[in-house]
Amino acid sequence: MSAKYIFVTGGVVSSLGKGLAAASIGCLLEARGIKINIMKFDPYLNVDPGTMSPFQHGEVFVTDDGAETDLDLGHYERFTHAKLTRDNNLTTGRIYEQIITKERRGDYLGKTVQVIPHVTNEIKNAMRRVAADCEVALVEIGGTVGDIESLPFLEAIRQMRQELGRENTCFVHMTLVPWIAAAQELKTKPTQHSVKEMLSIGIQPDILLCRSDRAVPREMRSKIAAFCNVEEAAVVIARDVPSIYEVPLNLAEQHVDTLALKYLRLETKPADLSKWQDIVYRAYNPTDEVSIGIVGKYVEYEDSYKSLKEALVHGALAHNLKLRVTWIEAEGLETRDEDGKRNKAYESQLAGFDGILVPGGFGKRGIEGMLNAIRYAREQKVPYFGICLGMQTACIEYARNVCGLKDANSGEFDPATPHRIIYKLRELTGVEEMGGTMRLGAWACVLEPDSLAHKAYGSTEISERHRHRYEFNREYEAVLTGGGLRLTGTTPDATYVEIVEIPGHPFFLGCQFHPEFKSKPLEPHPLFKDFIGASYKNGGERVREKGSAENIVVG
Prior knowledge:
Homotetramer. This protein is an alpha/beta fold.
């Protein structure tokens, strides 16, 4: 039997949370024992998000097969068990690239290539590929109805209903019910106009997810149902919640999964949401809190580090702690030594955190600030976790301030440095193109026994996802290990260094890969779990030391 489809679209404004809604519906269907897969179409012309600015697009999520994808795929993986690949995220650019390649090759036999049927057929074929091995495929259409670039995707899903029938397709449309402060009332007109726009292109939504920051009265839901031609039970209020992990429970309370299954003519067992209920209970009933300072270069836009923030939340939930994150702009920590004396003006910005983390990034902006933060964490025995760029800068800091290589740097930041601790991946020498030219996807790693990493994973062989152009230069291995740095993770062929640690430190670990991509609320990543544990322990010891010092002064 072929798969059935749930199509998730959006209207009124972007950023309503279609990705979270799609992921949550997938979570509810899985809880009922249904095998699902989930994908997203992005209407922009970029081939993939790999070369897009983090300030515009947010983070780039990487799958095991090395695809650079939209951040919503991170939500899909965190909320479901779907195995995502490059087939699960397609952009207009990727689709047009495929069509033009076929046209140049002569596959269309000289026919005129048009949006209908060629573009829409390519879109439908992409959906069928993802749905080949599941019972229900969820398909999210990026953007909002009314956007010119979204039209081919909406036309494609309209055609899918025509081809498969109403019992095999379900349309979920997300809209906004705004609160107008001047009038002191909620307004349904934006939702009505959004549904009218959908109807104008031949799509009748089955379920409406109405985003609101407050409760919506029943009479207003009845009004929406009447004007939008859906049953009242299908007008679902998606209220703002403090924890995104409450979203599946909120949708379940309003029977979204039951409705979707009714429209798809599917019968299943009741959903078991006990694990999600436990996660939400712990999120709202922590025993204590832990404070983490994240020193990055894209901190003005939190979506740039979406998976990272969620992985820290997962680590905190594993210890029943509330996470307090402070975003620190790396450039704000850049202070220079004067007359041979060390300038410590940045230390006041770093004092008081239980742990410090430096995430990934590209380019030289803010690097000196990151090096100051790493030096502070190393010398003050504050737990430190460096990811990708955070590992590379940790090696540079160690080379400069412990091993005496004052001009140590990365070839990315200073091509003329005499001590190139970090240099370009050997296979990328001479490659100048930006898109898709990095070391991407899942790679195996072998861990040293009795290392922090080995204790966290409980294994000596792991697989993690990568996204980088530069690597540790093993010509400096003897110098840095002689100075006390420990290389505790390498590729099986010993070509690449994957993890570095400082023995004797409460927690100092840098990894070349991105562990945040594999963390889930129900399965927190071991490195984040141990980093949060060490940070919380450090915070407790700091409080005790401060209390002892105050008692001494008073005495």
